[in-house]
Design brief:
- This protein is α/β, with parallel strands linked by helices.
- The chain has 11 helices and 5 strands.
- Helix 1 links the parallel strand 1 and strand 2.
- Helix 8 packs across helix 10 and helix 8 packs across helix 11.
- It is globular.
- It comes from Streptomyces decoyicus.
Amino acid sequence: MPISVLLVDDEPLVRAGLRAILEAQSDIEVAGEAGDGASVVPLVRKLRPDVIAMDVRMPLLDGIEATRAVLRSVPEPPRILVVTTFEEDEYVYEALRAGADGFLLKRARPAEIVHAVRLVAEGGSLLLPAALRSMAAGRRNDRARADLERAALTAREQEVLRLMSRGLSNAEIAGRLVLGAETVKTHVSSVLGKLGARDRTQAVIAAYESGFVAPG
């Protein structure tokens, strides 16, 4: 079955460009479009897309609130990619904290857009850019630190989280720690569960906000 995508952006030209790029792929189809975040939840319930490509800044309901609404009210929600003009954007950061799985720059090359959609559809997460890692570190706070301490990660899980925060894939972590791929997958799942994180993106944000890791 092809990956189905819902496009959400208040600019028709942006939606048209994304549609042209995605529908040129044999394994991706555009299930529908919306011009504002307020339409997202009903469309998700109707179309059941695998991925939402959602503008972060929209007039009626922005991508942050639309992300929260989808994750709060839709059983087995789709993966969410926020789409933005600038990566150093508080809106993008808040959308990721709200549960979005990654973001796309509107100036991204077609191959990068296709790769991002495929990656999140498969359950992967995009690398958090340096600008957003610094933003997360700048929001270091006692609550995040207490949450991480309460998670009581084992020494091995802490190693895995540090490597996740550097953007390493499961295969790369396995090579670095000399572990089997399935063992690493189990450790990653345990880290996410203990942190209450939807995916790697939220786990990495928690690692930076708690001061467990630092950018650079």
